[in-house]
Amino acid sequence: MRRAPLALALGIAAAALLAACGGGSKDKAGSTSVPAAPSGFTVQQGKGYAFVRPEAWHVAPERAASIGGKVLEITGPKRAGGLPGQVVLGRTEHYGGTFDAALLAFRQSDIESLPRPVVRERAISLPGAVAARRFDVDYRQPAPSGGQVAVHSVDLLVLGRDRTQMHLLVRAPATDYRAGRLDTVVDSFRAR
Fold first, then answer.
1. What domain range is 138 assigned to?
2. Is 166 inside any structural domain?
3. SS3 for 60?
4. Is 52 inside a domain boundary?
5. What is the reported pTM?
6. Would 3 be classed as within a structural domain?
7. Closest to 62 in 3D by CA, of 76, 44, 77, 78
8. pLDDT tens for residues 80-129?
9. Which residue, of 11, 40, 144, 180, has the greatest Cβ tally within 10 A?
10. H helix and E strand count, the chain
């Protein structure tokens, strides 16, 4: 008889420990819908998405994009060459096109026209997404303080199950990207 209360107490303690360790929350289907935020990061979430971002960075109010949809901009402090790190999320609800059409438009507008050399491109599996693709890009950019700064950026193109098309851009001077653990932002992204 005493084993049942002990087992219940141990089960509650284990659940509390998992919650304290930041296991993230689960939706009804059992997939992680809100990522756990490691030290120095906080959860940023909105309609159709969730990810973690550096806690001290400035979040501007979401605004309408000139080409439709919504844009959320998060900016870090100025670092190498006077450039800040940035996290930008563009999203379009009720997207009527295909994921391939979104990829083609991205390649034409953001890769080929600038040009920004893609270091690595790959399809990825992303919670809550029908399709997702990651682009790692390295380029040099003029710095406000003069000269050129090496920049690393990651673009995620995502089509959510709810037909929300999203483009997450995370970029910073290359040394700051690594030191700021900005892949944490990219790796935490969830479509919801």
1. 24-191
2. yes
3. coil
4. yes
5. 0.80
6. no
7. 44
8. 788 999 999 999 999 999 999 999 988 888 777 677 788 999 999 999 99
9. 180
10. 4, 13
